[in-house]
Amino acid sequence: MSNIKTHTVALLFALSGVVGCGNAPDDEPLKPRRAAVLVEGCTLDDWQHATLSAVETTQVLDEVVLRCLVLRQDGSIAPTDSAARSALRTLTAALQSHGYQVGLAVTAQTDDGVDHTPAQLLGILSDPSLRSRATSELVSLAPSANFLDLALPPLPDSGRGVMTLWATELSAALRPMTRLGYFAPPLTQEPSELAGGGAVDLRALAPSFDRIRLLTTDYSCCEQVAGPTTEPGWVTEVAQFVQNRIGAVRPEIDITLPLYGVDFSKRGQRPVSYLEAIGVAQHNGRQIKRAPGGSLHFDWTEPSGAQHELWFDDAAATIGHQRRFDPSIDSNVGILYYGLGAEDPALFSELSRRR
Q1: Is 194 helix (H, G, I), strand (E, B) or coil?
Q2: Greater confidence, 194 or 58?
Q3: Where are the beta strands (DSSP E) in 1-84?
Q4: Whole-number Å distance between alpha carbons of 220 and 312
Q5: Phi and psi dihedrals of 225, rounded to 5?
Q6: Where are the domains of the chain?
């Protein structure tokens, strides 16, 4: 780990003149909000371990969400072997010993790690025996964690009823032993224009969940023009719409801030970490610019001539996003930071200074 830190410090020092665009946000305290961070996988690398062990991080984060449980075609929940499940329980206990609550998030994928198509996922959840098996296995996995979250790929609009039904079944089987969370698309209208949004009936789902996490990421994901990964005005719109939509039944709500950036090209869009973005800029001799909204961006060209535009956030941008939506979003709305390990290494210390 010391070698990684040494390399990082040297890289950031070398690039300090490149990233110095725009003014950092002021040091006024941010609105206090509960905060969680999402980890992709059932394990932590050295960098993630060190980050979560740092005092500054423990002062910012209340919860760690491990997105590592997987619904398979036969209704089973991976990891299925006892050794992997034991290791997950050990990691959960270690994180709890640091003062974190721990959530386990379940997605749905093939054995090759590819998300189930909407039709495949609908087929699994529409089969009572497969749905029952999945519920039973989640009941056996849940007691070690504080939260169990559904973080599923999109369903077709026709899956609206079965999604609500499974949520009701899970709630009956797991609560109050374990709290339930739901990763919801960033809805701003109903019926939704988003892929899979039509399958999400927030008003019907709300009684089954203790928390709804709104995935306010990939703001520019489906546009022809590259742009920022999130946008404070849009985050506010999503949070306010969902609060109004679910009405009197009020599970806690989290909005999401991405820790990763996106590299746009004709080949598609690829997530990148802060350090990778900095390295690409340095290698290609590109100046990093700060957009009016605070995000960083630059364009670069491959030796083959392929054009890229890369957008990402540093600590100043992420703090600036919250500063812009703080006046408009209730203080009981939390933040989920998505993608531990992809962030600006200064992020959590900077957030800690503003608490």
Answers
A1: coil
A2: 58
A3: 35-40, 63-71, 77-78
A4: 12
A5: -105, 130
A6: 31-259+330-353, 260-312
Q: Is the pLDDT of residue 7 over 60?
A: no
pLDDT at 176: 86
Predicted local distance difference test score (pLDDT) of residue 224 = 62
**Secondary structure (DSSP) of 239-269:** HHHHHHHHTT---EEEEEEES-EEEEETTEE
CATH for 31-259+330-353, options being 3.40.50.2300, 3.30.200.20, 3.20.20.80, 2.40.160.60: 3.20.20.80
pLDDT higher than 50, residue 12: no
Rounded CA-CA distance 103/162 in Å is 24
Dihedral angle at the C-alpha atoms of 69, 73, 74, 75, nearest 10 degrees?
A: 40
For 72-163, strand residue ranges (E) read 77-78, 101-108, 147-150
| Domain 260-312 of CATH type 3.90.580.10 | no
- List, for residues 19-57, the tens digit of each pLDDT value: 444 444 467 899 999 999 999 999 999 999 999 999 999
Give the amino acid at 344: D
Cα 276 from Cα 87, distance rounded (Å): 30
> How many other β-carbons are positioned within 10 Å of the β-carbon of residue 27?
9
The residue count of the chain comes to 355
Q: Which two tokens stand for residue 298?
A: 């630059």
pLDDT digits (tens, 9 = 90+) for 254-266: 999 999 999 999 9
